[in-house]
TrEMBL record:
Any Gene Ontology biological process: cytokinin biosynthetic process
Gene of this entry: yvdD
EC number of the protein: 3.2.2.n1
A single MF term (Gene Ontology): hydrolase activity, hydrolyzing N-glycosyl compounds
Record carries keyword DNA damage: no
InterPro entries: LOG (IPR005269), LOG_fam (IPR031100)
Similarity comment: Belongs to the LOG family.
Keywords: Cytokinin biosynthesis, Hydrolase
Broad enzyme group: hydrolase
Protein name per its UniProtKB record: Cytokinin riboside 5'-monophosphate phosphoribohydrolase
GO cellular component, one term: cytosol
Organism superkingdom: Bacteria
Pfam families with a match to the protein in the record: Lysine_decarbox
Length: 196
């Protein structure tokens, strides 16, 4: 059962207002589905928007932030709780341990690194938690193409394609996650459609 969702997201807002709108909407949907948010703890960018959406909708938002990044101007002041960690590796381990599912919003290199590590962990069997991408403005289309290409070129197993769900609407991702059941069939899926 999914009750705690880890969200990876950019600490910048991006160039289009739709990114922030969808991030806040994702937060609202997380709360509407009775889930808690676990994320990086920032008030900035899409990270702050998703937390604002969760908190304004009456649910919990837990931030996990390395001490080096713990500055008043960066951390979200309205969080339900903030967990201080020593570095980025510990941050990812704590967030992963607290989460029943993962969603990535658009972001930069840090967001890609977090997402790809979680995808790798699923591929090698460290976890069997659902992973979703909120594909605002087609942001993740190139990543979907790259993953498909890695399978076509023999660098990743075909089962990798079934480890992600990509959707353009937050409600679709949350509905999928709430009904998700890990099985051997999930790991064996070979169809991959960027829009689910």
């Amino acid at each position: 059962m999914v009750s705690s969702i880890c969200v990876f997201a950019g600490s910048n807002p991006g160039l289009h207002a739709e990114y922030a709108v969808k991030a806040r909407e994702l937060g609202q949907q997380i709360a509407a589905h009775g889930c808690r948010l676990v994320y990086g703890g920032s008030r900035n960018g899409l990270m702050g928007q998703v937390a604002d959406g969760v908190l304004a909708s009456g649910s919990e938002a837990v931030g996990v932030m390395p001490v080096d990044l713990f500055k008043e101007e960066i951390r979200h002041s309205g969080l339900t709780s903030l967990i201080e960690v020593t570095g980025m590796h510990e941050r990812k381990a704590v967030m992963s341990g607290m989460a029943d599912a993962f969603i990535a919003l658009p972001g930069g290199v840090g967001t890609f690194e977090e997402l790809l590590e979680i995808l790798c962990w699923a591929q090698i069997g460290i976890h069997r938690k659902p992973i979703g991408l909120l594909n605002v403005r087609g942001y993740f289309d190139p990543l979907a193409e790259m993953i498909t290409h890695s399978v076509e070129e023999g660098f990743a197993a075909p089962s990798t394609l079934g480890l992600l769900r990509i959707a353009s609407e937050p409600a679709e991702l949350l509905e999928w996650m709430k009904s998700y059941k890990a099985s051997d069939d999930t790991l064996g899926q070979t169809s991959f459609n960027p829009l689910g």
